[in-house]
Amino acid sequence: MPLLLRLYLGFAAVSAPFWRAVLWLRQRKGREDRERGREKLGYYTRARPDGRLLWFHAVSVGEAQALITLMDRLTAAHP
Question: Which helix (H) or strand (E) segment is 64 a member of?
Answer without folding.
Answer: helix 61-77
